[in-house]
Amino acid sequence: xxxxxxxxxxxxxxxxVTLVKWLKKDGEYxxxxxxxxxxxxxxxxxxxxxxxxxVLKTIAAEGDTLKIGDIxxxxxxxxxxxxxxxxxxxxxxxxxxxxxTEPVAAPKAIEADVKATPVxxxxxxxxxxxxxxxxxxxxNGRIVKQDVLEAINNPGRKPGVELFGREKRTExxxxxxxxxxxxxxxxxxxxxMLTTFNEVDMSAIMDIRxxxxxxxxxxxxxxxxxxxxxxxxxxxxxQEWPAVNAMIDGEGIQYHNYCDISIAVSAPKGLVVPVxxxxxxxxxxxxxxxxxxxxxxxxxxxxxxxxxSGGTFTITxxxxxxxxxxxxxxNIPQSAILGMHKIQDRPMAINGQVVIKPMMYLALSYxxxxxxxxxSVSFLVRVKxxxxxxxxxxxxxxxxxxxxxx
Length: 406
What we know:
By secondary structure, the protein is of the alpha+beta class. It has helices at residues 86-101, 118-127, 145-153, 175-190, 203-220, 227-240, 284-299, 305-308, 373-388, 392-395, 399-403; strands at 2-6, 16-22, 29-30, 35-40, 45-49, 54-58, 65-67, 71-76, 193-201, 247-249, 252-254, 261-263, 265-267, 270-272, 275-276, 313-317, 336-340, 344-350, 353-367. The chain folds into three domains: 2-76, CATH 2.40.50.100; 86-153, E3-binding domain (Dihydrolipoamide Transferase, Irregular), CATH 4.10.320.10; 175-403, Chloramphenicol acetyltransferase-like domain (Chloramphenicol Acetyltransferase, 2-Layer Sandwich), CATH 3.30.559. The longest helix is centred in the middle third of the chain and has 18 residues, at 203-220.
């Protein structure tokens, strides 16, 4: 008996997906609940599991666009399970065979899976050539002397790319990339976007991290990063300036008494923005753990639609890629986004003296339809104040003034 495996529903607004990859081959025996394919919607990547054990019969091809409910494959549940497992035997045998054919005289600098003639290997070891930059031209993918000399004489050249080559290729745009493109254009066309800038002295935060990072990791099992400081500061500022945490709802404005902070993460298939729920109620350690959890899921394409839905305010960190200053685009339907940037030592005038300080530019892009200039600038100044005086993050105000109820 053959059962049909259909594309499952993954959200109310999603009507079609793309079959990215078959993880099991046509005609291969699969066990029940084994992952057999990877699908991609406009918001996330998810997997299809085998509903029963049997022999797989693929129907859709990789790259096909399927509607919810379409048949992706079938499984012959009456097919007998093959005796033994050939795959593990091959995995064990392959390295043994490779080791037997590897030149005995190859220097230790050559990786075990790299094939090279003795002369080529000697030059690689002597000149400390990165074998990844060498294009093998010998039989069976073996590196010869001329290959190494070519790599030495053409440093920085990408392997396999001909000089003055003019090749080009066209790839199908993924559903996720289509969604990113549509939303970015929509944000530019439907919001009155404006950006205000400021800069923050990161000395205090960097000192705290340097003094406490080891103890923090020992106590909480996670590194003390910058994101928890910025998230805490934004949560205090958002509650003081609620318009920055609001969004347009039809002809009204929807305000939130909580802070669901979206964090922009660069995933293998594009930018995703998972959400830290009720960040205003989380501790520094809880924020850092949530950041690591969401970032890991993003890199492994395991974020759910629920984890990327909602959010009242977004933080994006272009500084990890070296950006000194940029204008972030609002993550609609939100009304504002904070852009972090690279920390760079710059000369600053402090009490009439020039002092070198680790400075970071901050950029707040906001929808001017519901956020006025006073609110946006005051919000960013408040974030700057909290970051330059981290003790304020405990109460949201000066501890002494809090004690004196001033």
